[in-house]
Amino acid sequence: MVKVISLGGSIVAPDKVDTVFLKELHSLIKKYLEEDKSRKLILVIGGGGPARSYQKAYREIADSPSSDRQDWIGIAATRLNGELLRSVFAGYCDNNVVTDPTAVREFNGRILVAAGWKPGFSTDFDAVILAEKFNAKTVINLSNISKVYSEDPKINPAAVPLDKMNWADFKKLVGEEWIPGKNVPFDPIATKKAAELGMQIVVAGGKDINNLELILQDKLEEMEGTLIGPE
Hints:
The protein has helices at about 10, 20-35, 50-60, 65-90, 125-135, 165-175, 190-195, 210-215; strands spanning about 1-5, 40-45, 110-115, 140-145, 150, 160, 165, 200-205, 225-230. The chain is an alpha/beta fold. A 7-stranded mixed beta sheet has the order 3-2-1-4-8-9-7, with helices on both faces.
């Protein structure tokens, strides 16, 4: 039984590594895995604050900054975060950090850690590819927002949080184009792929450990978050 978590870099390393959060996450995941030896987790990690900081520096300095080069900078940050997670979960994670989700055949431990792959999308897309490969029907997307809003609340204060969304409405919200560092609940390229596969996505605040435990236990009716999926 495999579950896939797309772990936003903004909650692991908003500016520097959040060791308090990682200790809590480490304890929860150990508990979850030890309760049932058949359980496995795939953790796909984003770049967070370091990625955005270095991308910003590149844009300010380079004569003609390109999207591809910004993506590669972000990918490097995800791989650093990935090595940290792999080391934190060393007792459960036997494989090297995955940098190409299409090349993975199996994993021997209880946790598989994946990072950025190549330009054109975020690690959310990697999470969807790995979910498809290992027959996981749900991707748990953890970030610094607790729910998806009807609109960007920073632009429209009247925007409301949503408990559920269908793929058609969610696609309208996130758009179709990937921009490096784009701040959306789920990558547009990953959104398109997940919708095609008929998956569902749980969007929730990553630092609420008690809420994450509910999600891992499939108590989605009790969670604080947004469930995105087919009609």
